[in-house]
Amino acid sequence: MDKASTPVDQGAAPVDAPAAADGAVTVVDPRLLVREQGFAGYISEFKRKIRAGDLGSIPVIIGLIIICVVFQSLNSNFLTAGNISNISVAMVGTGMIAVGIVFVLLLGEIDLSVGSVSGVSGALVAVLSVSHGMNEWLALVIAIVSGAVIGAVHGFFFARVGAPAFAVTLAGLLFWLGFMLQILGDNGTINLDSEGVVAKLTTYYFSDVAVAYGVAVVAVVVFFATSFLENRRREAAGVPSRPLSEIVLRTAVLAVVALAAAFMFNQYKGLPLALLIFLVVLVLTDFVLRRTTYGRKVFALGGSVEASRRAGINVTMIRISVYAIAGTFAAIGGLFLASKIAAANQGAGTGDLLMNAIAAAVIGGTSLFGGRGRTWNALLGVMVIVSIQYGLALEGVGTPVVYMITGGVLLATVVIDSVSRKTQKTAGRA
After folding, report:
1. Which residues make beta-bridge pairs with 205?
2. Measured CA distances, 33 to 36, 39, 41, 229, 243 (Å)
3. Does any domain span residue 133?
4. Could you identify which of 158, 231, 270, 282 might form a hypothetical disulfide with 207, taking C-beta atoms 3.0 to 4.6 angstroms apart as the criterion?
5. Radius of gyration of the chain from its Cα atoms, rounded to whole angstroms
6. CA neighbor of 343 nearest in space, from 147, 184, 205
7. Tell me: the pLDDT tens digits for 236-254?
């Protein structure tokens, strides 16, 4: 007789297993324990994350502190207002390109064409506005849109045709480099209007001290307001939320950093326009990745393509859009790089630009394996790279040593990422 058809003994006594009930352990969300235990709970949570390999941005922050201490001890000019301001402006071009790279790396892919695309962007603006007399604003828009279209074309061949992203973007690197050289012509260099829109991107400073302090205060107020409202929303939904004391502490730390930076910039020329634009871009892109449906789809796709497809995500369109975003930020970065030298030339987009952009994203904390990272990683990573470059320049160290040190830092970051990933798998968190 089948077990399913076995009659139930109506006279059987109900099973009572008090020992099993007493030994049962109720699983509690660790975030709830953290909230209940206060700051001691956060220390425990921090230790738990470290043991599980969830390092976040800790390595790069420690690295930045070490870089500052070492170079300041070697040369007292390293942490002066002028040098810090110069670093903040110099890092924007590469940093913008790295923002686009972050999106691509979140998919677990790569884009080798961004350097050449940035060169095309600067060349288009110079040719259209200087050689053909087009309105510079219109030329700027055309350059940025061209970057988006180029990225979308790369994404189409990768996502729709099925060609490997490495091969597609490598071909793009060569093709767009040749295209840039072609439109620049035999002369090879076109100087930009020193008073034009593009030139002002890296030469304009808000000299009024109120601007830097005002931006700092607005950033602090907005951070507190959004954190507080987010907490209220989570409390109303009955999900774990941060205690008010933690929000106040985070806001206080941000206030100290923001006001100190404002004070530093005001000791030189004021708040750089380039840095302000970069920070606004980071805030907006971080919002897109962490607070929108599109951002969640990007992370999901980086975690598992097949699972994302089964969940109803349009994998092809997300991939194409991500490469379009990478092309857009490559073009924007190219404008800042052209602004820095007030010209478009045959060397634009070549050299170590591509490697520095990828290295900035990875060093900042974006995983090469996909599914983990934030656009703020681009800021941290490019700060490391440019700080090393400027620190070694103050010491008169040559380019070969700069390359070797940057390569060593990148290798260390990749090793940390790989070890962290293995540790998380062991702990069941990846």
Report:
1. 272
2. 5, 11, 7, 22, 12
3. yes
4. 270
5. 26
6. 184
7. 887 777 778 888 988 999 9
C-alpha distances out from residue 240 to 40, 42, 282, Å: 17, 14, 26
The CATH number for 132's domain is 1.10.3470
Confidence band of 18 (pLDDT split at 50, 70, 90): low
Assigned domain for 258 exists:
no
Contact between 169 and 113 (Cβ < 8 Å): yes
Domain of 156 in residue numbering reads as: 57-207+269-418
Phi, psi of 11 (to 5 degrees): -95, 0
- Hey, what are 218's tokens? 């607005």
Structure tokens, 16: 């009572």
Look at residue 332 and tell me if it is in a domain: yes
Determine the Cα–Cα distance for residues 155 and 168; give it in Å rounded to an integer.
9
Angstrom distance (rounded) from CA 408 to CA 414: 10
41 falls within a domain: no
Which amino acid would we find at residue 200?
A: K
Total number of domains in the chain: 1
Give the strand pairing for 189-191 and 205-206.
Answer: unpaired
Q: Coil, helix or strand for 223? A: helix
Give pTM, 2 decimals.
Answer: 0.86
